[in-house]
Amino acid sequence: MTIVAAPLRPAHPPVARRFLAMLPGVAALGAVGYAGKIAEQSIAAYGRAHHLTLPNVEYVLWAIIFGLIVSNTVGVPAICEAGVDTYEFWLKSGIVLLGVRFLLGDVAKLGAVSLVCVVLELAVSIAVMTALGRAFDLPPKLTSLLAIGASICGVSAIIAAKGAIEADDEDASYAIAAILALGAISLFVFPLVGHALGMSDHAYGLWVGLAVDNTAEATAAGALYSEAAGRFAVLAKTTRNATIGFVVLGYALYWIRKGGAAGVANKPAFLWAKFPKFVLGFVAISTLATLGAFTTAESADIANLSRWAFLFTFAGIGLRTNLRTIARQGWRPLAVGVAGECAIALLTLVMIAGAAQRFLP
Amino acid sequence: MNNLSRDWMAVLAAALAVLLVKLGLLARIPW
C-alpha cells in the first residue's frame, strides 16, 4: 500500500494574499505612469508660460524612461515584482475597453485590411528569420522561436510556442530577450521614421501594429505618434495576435514531423487554447458601441479608463526592461533579431504604402 | 495563473468597469 502524505500547505497562496502581494507593484506602476503624465503636462505648461515652443514629449515616453531608470539603477524592489508583472493584465484590459472607440464596421474594414497585411507579414517574417537563423548558425529551435516571436506577438507567442515545440528554457529566454530589446529600440525608431515620412495616423498605426512584435511596445509606439495612431496600432496588433494559434500549431506540427516534439491530439482544442481571449472582449465592447449601448459621456468614461490602463502598461514596459539582462544574452540572437526586424519593418512599410493608397483614408 | 486565465481576467475586469459606468457608479473619469 502506498501512503501519500497530504500537503501541509496549498500549492498556491490564497487569492486574497496573492491580491495583497500585487498592491505595492501596482502602486509603483501607477506612480511611475503618473509621474510621466505630470512630466508631459509640466513641460507643456512651462513652454506656454515662457512662450517657448518645446517639443511635445508624450507621457508614454516619460513613463517608459522613468521605469527604465528605476529598473536599471536601484532595480525593482522584490516586494513590487508581483504587481509590476500585472502590466500585461492592464494592457489587455485597456485593449478590451478601447473597443468602445471602434464601430464594428471600422473593425471589419480595417481588420480585413490588417488581416491581409498580417498574412503577408507572417510569410515574410518567418522566411526572413529562418534564413537569418540559418546564416548565423543559431540552434534550430531558437530560430523557430525568433521566427514565431517576430511574426506574431513577441513574448506571448514565444511562451506559447516553447511548450508546443519543446524548446529549451535557454533558447526561450534568448528569444524573449532579443524581442524585448528590439521592442525597446522600436519605441524610439518607429515614431522618428513615421514623422520623417509624414505618414498618416492610419498608415503609421497599421505599420506599427504589423512590425513591432510585443503588444505592449506596439501600443506604446503607436501612442507616441498620436492617439489615433495608437488606436489603429492596437487594432492591427490585435488582428495579428488572433493568428497566434495557427502559427504555433504549424510550428508544433513541423517539429513533430522532425521528431522533436510530442503530438497534438486535438487541433481545434489546441487553437482555442492558444487564442488570445481578450480579442473577444474587444469585439464585444465594439459591438455594444455599434449598437448604441453607450451614451457619449459613457463612451468617454470607458475610453478614459482604457487610457489609465495603458498608463499602467507603459510604466510596466520600463520597469520590467533590464538592459544588463539583455546584454548578457550575447550578440548573435540580437544580430539576427535586428537584421530580421529591419527587413520586416522595411517590407511592411512597402506593404502599408500600397494599402494606404487603396484602402486607408 | 496561466495566460488563458489572465486573458479572461482582463475581459472580466473590463466588463465590470463597463457595468459600473453603465450603472453610473463610475462617472466623469478624468484624464
What number of domains of chain B?
Answer: 1
How many helices of chain B does DSSP assign?
A: 1
Enumerate the spans of chain A where pLDDT stays under 50 for 5 or more consecutive residues: none
Beta-strand fraction estimate of chain B: under 5%
Q: Would you list the SSEs of chain B in sequence order as H and E?
A: H
Helix share, percent of chain A? over 70%
Q: End-to-end distance of chain B, in Å? A: 31 Å
Average pLDDT, all residues of chain A: 85
- Chain pair with largest interface: A-B, 30 and 21 residues
The beta-strand count of chain B equals 0
Q: Overall mean pLDDT score of chain B?
A: 87
Radius of gyration based on Cα positions of chain B: 12 Å
Q: What percent strand of chain A?
A: under 5%
What oligomeric assembly is this protein in? Answer: heterodimer
Model description:
- The complex is a heterodimer of chains A (361) and B (31).
- With 361 residues, chain A is mainly alpha-helical.
- Chain A has one domain.
- Chain A has helices at residues 15-49, 59-72, 78-84, 87-98, 104-135, 140-151, 154-165, 169-197, 201-211, 215-225, 227-241, 244-257, 267-274, 278-290, 296-319, 323-328, 331-358.
- In chain A, helix 2 (59-72) runs parallel beside helix 15, helix 6 runs parallel beside helix 8 and helix 8 packs across helix 17 (331-358).
- The longest helix of chain A is centred in the N-terminal third of the chain and has 35 residues, at 15-49.
- Chain A is globular.
- The N and C termini of chain A lie far apart (74 Å).
- With 31 residues, chain B is mainly α.
- Chain B has one domain (1-31).
- Chain B has one helix and no strands.
- Chain B is elongated.
- The model of chain B has no long low-confidence stretch (mean pLDDT 87).
- The interface between A and B is medium-sized, with 30 and 21 residues.
Keywords:
heterodimer, A: 361 residues, mainly alpha, 17 helices, globular, B: 31 residues, 1 helix, elongated
